[in-house]
Amino acid sequence: MEYTPTxxxxxxxxxxxxxxxxxxxxxxxxxxxxxxxNNGVAxxxxxxxxxxDIVITDVKMPEMNGIVLTQNIKQQYPAIKVLxxxxxxxxxxxxxxxxxxxxxxxxxxxxxxxxxxAINHIVNNGTYYSQEIVSILxxxxxxxxxxxxxxxxxxxxxxxxxxxxCQEYSSNxxxxxxxxxxxxxxxxxxxxxxxTGVKNLVxxxxxxxxxxxxxxx
Amino acid sequence: MEYTPTxxxxxxxxxxxxxxxxxxxxxxxxxxxxxxxNNGVAxxxxxxxxxxDIVITDVKMPEMNGIVLTQNIKQQYPAIKVLxxxxxxxxxxxxxxxxxxxxxxxxxxxxxxxxxxAINHIVNNGTYYSQEIVSILxxxxxxxxxxxxxxxxxxxxxxxxxxxxCQEYSSNxxxxxxxxxxxxxxxxxxxxxxxTGVKNLVxxxxxxxxxxxxxxx
DNA sequence: TGTAAAATACCTACTTATAGGTAGTAAAAT
DNA sequence: ATTTTACTACCTATAAGTAGGTATTTTACA
Lengths: 217, 217
Description:
Helix content of chain A is 52%, strand content 13%. By secondary structure, chain A is of the alpha/beta class. In chain A, strands 2-1-3-4-5-6 form a 6-stranded parallel sheet, with helices on both faces.
């Protein structure tokens, strides 16, 4: 049974991690890294010409991130397994990755043995989530039960306006930019403040930063 | 000359990166990874018993980070070279790492070849900084020249008020809290905006976060 | 001690934001 | 087919912030 090694596609935007993992995995006789990609787009292109059993991908990448990549793979190649492997135990991503139907989620601080174990488990139609992920999920659940007021209740337009607010646009400027009335912008702001339950502009910015609605501050 | 391979100590808190790099570097005949450490403390302990030529370390780690580790190594073992290898091209760290007298600074998105080149260069008493780092430094320089209007020009009271603003206090509340008139608070706000050259409240918060006047958002 | 910077305070005027209401339309969900 | 949700828009009113001015007191320091 070990004469057909598991064929792996590695996806990561860090060259060293890519080649490092390759060297690591190729030490295993039943594993074979058949291709490397620096981002999701490149990965999807490689899948057209390479038969692989499992894709191991990072989350944060240029062009197309690991979540979108996972969604695409699962749509186009349902048989191919996806293992997400990331440095960041970001809360925000965990649920998204689960929703994208990834078969596994590991943090890069796992050991070589656990990675191999996870790969083998997944190619045998299992799933594998590291302990940290599980505990993050538990915390998420608790928070959602207590807070209950989170981002999914904000509409697209509201998120858009929050972004503009955080980019130092005033209500008038937002109105101009979005070709809507200032009154409408005011309504949105009103609803945003009400939904998020914050006190004022400053509170809104804190909320936006804490919930990853805006970045780069 | 190639009969004495370069002895390497790898330091990273991510097990996979550690073993991945090890596998990668051991492919080179003139390089030899002699020890692995998960953090700075472990690394220093290993240096007591292992003769190494160069330490390759990450920055963000528990217990003791890469910057403090570099300082310690350079104090206790001036002959040992240090190459900092990080995923993050964080502005903040660049200058600190340079001040810690690291012999090189690479981002993990460099290729295998460049890493090996850097190692060889450094053990031959050279230094090696990746292109991104150099450009970050250039940007830093420019910013310092152009901005020039930074925190030292803000008075204690002004900094105090910025902090309160960022804690969602309104001018009226700040006035109450500091036992001064609202008019005075307004003057301070006015001066703060003028000194920092920002457009409005949101701009002020960005400024405060970027300059470390407030934390924890 | 004299001077400069910082902090205090008040004035006017204007702009922006918050908070309540009502209400029409289009799309999505039940 | 009806209800809900999102988006749109306007009205009123108050609160908060921005921007200019002047002026007194306190503090720091040369």
